[in-house]
Amino acid sequence: MNFHKAMVGTGVLALMGAAWYSYRWAGVALVGSAAVMWILLHFTRSLQVLKRATNRPIGSVSSAVMLNAKLKTGVSLLHVIAMTKSLGLQQSAKDTQPEVFRWKDAGESHVTCEFRAGKLTTWSLFRPAQTDDASTPAP
Q: Structure pTM?
């Protein structure tokens, strides 16, 4: 289990204890209600991100170069899906670590992202070779 997640749970329990000590059941109800609201906010955000992603083809992005510029190590898969507004095309076997997803734009450039435990670890940008028709002399 992740240290951050353990600290959140420990913090909620500590707040529950402090609320019980100060206000008894009224305090516990207040802290419990706040915790449930926080969980519902995160759940609603996840659903909104996935709802927006249903309107686009899997693995598509408007600009792979811009996606490459916006990515940062440690962001979650949900955050990347929110940035691209599209689910990534899975390149790795299902339910294996690391998870590898690819997003491709109209110009055949693509970004391949590797996630470990749901967090972005590495990514690479591939751009096809440009054929410059303007530089070839006309006969």
A: 0.79
